[in-house]
Amino acid sequence: MLDGKVALITGAASGIGAGTARRFAQEGARVILADVQDGEGQQVLDEITGGGGQALYVHCDVSDADSVREAVETGVREFGRLDIVFANAGINGVWAPIDELQPEEWDQTIAINLRGTYLTVHFAVPHLKRAGGGSIIVTSSVNGNRTFSSPGASAYSTSKAGQVAFTRMIALELGRDGIRCNAVCPGLIHTNIEERTEHRDTEKLGIEVELPEGSPALNEGEGEPVDVADTCLFLASDLSRHVSGVEIYVDGGASLL
Ligand code: NAD
């Protein structure tokens, strides 16, 4: 479905990014894997190329403009074009009561999740225009859009809501260039993100959240990276040629109640 296409994926060393990189490569795309975890990124690269796919790993800190510019240029130099951008890198960061969440903790979450999305798109768009169009996909979340059930996650939820607004704005701006822009909003997905999350004093907020009995959630509420990857494949491919400016919830229905 993606023969001849080149895809840039940020946060490609783990979880949803790695799963989507494998899926895109299976469908014939050449994939630029961008991340800060070089060892893990190399493993994903080896796996894809070992299976006959084409990919390249580049070190890229999405919160740093020079780093993103360099990663995009390196990828385009190697593969000659760019058609698909998956702005997916993200962190949960620190979850803490608002009067305890420190300014630098707020800034870090916003810098990676929101500024990182802007920087990735900013440096990629000239190449998409040169290719005559393309598809941009942003990983947002149910959190901050459909659900507000993570006590202490004010910075994270704000960044995820901001990503949806950003996606709609760029869809408006880039439509005439043949560039479609959409967001995926995962629910709970089985990845490593929780390992790098700091929950500090959130119990003080006294908010307990559990899936209600009779919840419509499939698979006990948790999905796998491949569930998001398949949705991204739809958004990256011509199957979604008339779809732009939307967000798709990939949460097994968990956020309906
Ligand atoms: P993950 O931790 O497994 O993968 C995230 C990747 O992003 C990691 O490889 C990490 O190194 C990379 N990354 C972090 N900071 C970076 C930076 N500054 N520059 C470049 N790369 C960086 O987590 P995941 O669950 O696969 O998360 C991917 C995206 O999905 C995130 O945007 C996250 O907010 C979103 N999301 C995840 C879930 C979930 O339940 N897992 C739910 C909703 C949304």
TrEMBL record:
Claim: Heme is one of the keywords in the record: no
Keywords from the named record: NAD, Oxidoreductase
Domain Ketoreductase: residue ranges: 5-191
Superkingdom field: Bacteria
Family: Belongs to the short-chain dehydrogenases/reductases (SDR) family.
NCBIfam families according to UniProt: PRK05653.2-4, PRK07231.1
Name of the protein described by the UniProt record: SDR family NAD(P)-dependent oxidoreductase
Organism: Deinococcus rhizophilus
